[in-house]
Amino acid sequence: MRKISFEAKCEETVLDILLSNNVSKRLIRKLKQTSGGITINGKQVRTIDKVFKGDRITISLDDKKSLESNSKLNVPVLFDCDDLIVFDKPCNMPVHPSIKHQKDTLGNYFSYLCKGISFRPVNRLDKDTSGICAVAKNAFAAKLLQQTLEKTYYAIVCGTINKEGIIDAPIGRVDGSIITRKISDKGQRAVTHYRPIKHSDNGKYTLLKITLETGRTHQIRVHFSHIGYPLAGDDLYGGNCSDINRQALHCKSIRFLHPITGQEIRLDSELPPDMKKLI
Known about the structure:
Layout: E1 2-7, E2 12-13, H1 14-20, H2 25-32, E3 38-40, E4 43-44, E5 50-51, E6 56-61, E7 77-80, E8 84-89, H3 106-113, E9 120-121, E10 130-136, H4 139-148, E11 150-158, E12 165-168, E13 171-173, E14 181-183, E15 191-199, E16 205-212, H5 219-226, E17 249-257, E18 264-268, H6 273-278
Parallel strand pairs: 10-17
Antiparallel strand pairs: 1-6, 2-5, 3-4, 3-6, 7-8, 8-10, 9-10, 11-16, 11-17, 12-15, 13-14, 15-16, 17-18
C-alpha cells in the first residue's frame, strides 16, 4: 500500500489541502469510502475536518485489481520508483491483454514486477510501435503524469520530406471498423508537428522527429498517410512493407515532472535495429 503525506501550510479543511496538492475529486471520493483512506497521525478524518499549520494528512492508496503476471517476459526498465515505472517496450508486444493476447503483454510483465498493483499505462503504444511506455503505480501519480508527460516520436515514412511542418486534420473512425481511422470532418481535431532528421541513401525513406498536440488513435499513422507519406511497414495505411514488417514508429523520448518530488525527468530510448537499417 502506497502512503503519501501532505503538510498543512495554514488552517484549512482536509478537502482544501488534498485539492491543493492535486488529489482528484474522484480519488478523494474513493478514499472517503476506504477504511484508513485519509488519516492524521493514524486517525481517520473527514474531508470537512479542519487541520492546522504543520499537520500532516496521509492518504493510503490500496490497489485491489491486478493482471495475471508472467515472469517469462523481459522488458527493459528505464526508470522505477514507488509511484511509477517506465519501460522500453519492444515491437510485437501489446500493452493491454486482449482475447488474442492474454499473457504476453506489457501489463502481464508489469504485474510480475509490481505484484498486487493495478496497471495504469500513461501513454499507450500500439502492439507494433516500440519505445517508451510510462506506467503509474497509483491513481494519484497517474493523474499528475497525464498532466506533465511530453513525448517525442521518431517515424520513418516512405518518400522524401525536406521541410518541417504541421498537420492539422481531424481524425475519426472508419465506418464498420473498431480499429481503422481516417481523416473526417466529423472526427476530433488532431495536430502533428514534424521535422526531418535524415534521409536514406536510396531516397526511399525519411526519418522524422514528431511531437503531438493531441493524442488520437493512430494519429501519426493516419496523418502521414493522408499527406502521401505513409509510415514504412504500415500495411493498414498504405506503407511499403518490403523492408520492414511493422510500422516504423518509435517513442524515442519522454519528459515529465515526478508526481511527488516535482523533479524533471528525461528519458531516452535508442532507435531499434529494424528502423536503423532503413536509414
